[in-house]
Amino acid sequence: MAEYEMGKIDQKDKPDKKREELKGKVLVLRDLVNYADGTVASRMIISRKAGNITLFSFDENEGLSEHTAPYDATVTILEGECEVWVAGQTYQMKEGETIIFPANVPHALSAITRFKMSLTMIRE
Questions:
Q1: Is residue 10 part of a domain?
Q2: Residue 53 covered by a domain
């Protein structure tokens, strides 16, 4: 599983030409991040002091190891299926479903099939 520290994503409102090009357009989120064989790929589409929105693609059998974050986050599955663990509970998730990871609560996820997700992190 990939080691990914959600609390470490912070671009300090830094302008990014690729992110700026997305503004004011109709987007299909799952099309904005591609699969990469044997790994997890990501693309941040909004980065602000108040929070981030990042898109991820996971190859089959990839995932994020158990961790916590200091603020709430939502995960929405854009394509495929995964298994999610939150505070010891296991959930099977598929396209169109969303879960909220509470602040400071252990959570992890793993691909059942290749899948894509949107992660929205809101800071206090």
A1: no
A2: yes
Q: What is the CATH number for 93?
A: 2.60.120.10
- DSSP letters along 27-72, please? --GGGGS---TTSEEEEEEEEETTEEEEEEEE-TT-EEEEE--SS-
The Cα diameter of the chain in Å comes to 40
Beta strands at 89-94 and 115-122: parallel, antiparallel or unpaired = unpaired
68 C-beta neighbours (distance < 10 Å), count = 13
Does residue 18 lie in a domain region? no
Whole-number average pLDDT of the chain: 88
Burial class (CB in 10 A: 0-12, 13-18, 19+), 49: exposed
- What's the structural domain count of the chain? 1
Q: Model pTM?
A: 0.84
pLDDT at 15: 57
110 CB-side CA count, 13 A: 9
Question: Could you list the residue range(s) of the whole structural domain that residue 102 is in?
Answer: 29-122
Please state the φ and ψ torsions of residue 24, each to the nearest 5 degrees. 75, 15
Spatial neighbors of 25 by CB under 8 A, at least 6 apart, are none
